[in-house]
Design goal:
- There is one protein chain.
- With about 170 residues, the protein is α/β, with parallel strands linked by helices.
- It is built from six helices and seven strands, in the order βαβααββαββαβα.
- The strands form two sheets. A four-stranded mixed beta sheet has the order 3-5-4-7, with helices on both faces.
- The relative contact order is 0.17.
Length: about 170
């Protein structure tokens, strides 16, 4: 379906991201088909809300950084994910008090901007134990793995192993 940057596939996780990706699509001089994947959960979840300032002054970001404020040297594991599973992971990380795990959200799955992913990973350095891609729907595995296959080389450049882990299906 997607080849040679002919479409854009996004999975926004906040109200501001949804607004800005739609706004970006309308104001660009060139347009490609835009595929937006958004579960109903994110439309209703309090944790996915955005401030008025984020809506008024923000822009669409292809990769959202981790939300915990701590030195990057304390991070032992990086989790790459997209969609609502981020909120489940963040909640679980808080319950277990695992502040050594950074959760990065891939908001644009295709085309994957390698420079932005490289920049996001470079913050954590080569001492990080590994990078794990997660997904929340079986049918999205193909899109996520296609996006992450390009990330594998970047991860290796930064001394991070990319291990695929399949999340248990939501029941």
């Amino acid at each position: 379906l997607a080849a040679e940057d002919n479409v854009q596939v996004v999975y926004p996780t906040t109200a501001a991201q949804i607004f800005h990706v739609l706004r970006r699509q309308v104001i660009r001089k060139w347009r490609k088909p835009l595929i937006v994947m958004t579960p109903k959960y994110l439309l209703k979840a309090r944790s996915a809300t955005s401030s008025f300032e984020e809506l008024a002054t923000g822009t669409f970001r292809r990769i959202l950084p981790d939300t915990l404020n701590r030195p990057s040297s304390e991070v032992r594991k990086i989790v790459l994910c997209s969609g609502k599973i981020y909120y489940e992971l963040a909640e679980r990380r808080e319950e277990l008090q695992k502040n050594d795990i950074a959760i990065l959200r891939l908001e644009q799955l295709y085309p994957l901007q390698e420079r932005e992913l490289e920049q996001a990973l470079s913050i954590y350095g080569a001492g990080t134990g590994g990078s794990t891609p997660l997904r929340d729907k079986r049918e999205l595995l193909g899109q996520l793995l296609a996006a992450l296959s390009a990330a594998d080389g970047l991860c290796r450049q930064h001394g991070v192993n990319l291990d695929a882990i399949e999340a248990a299906p939501a029941g």
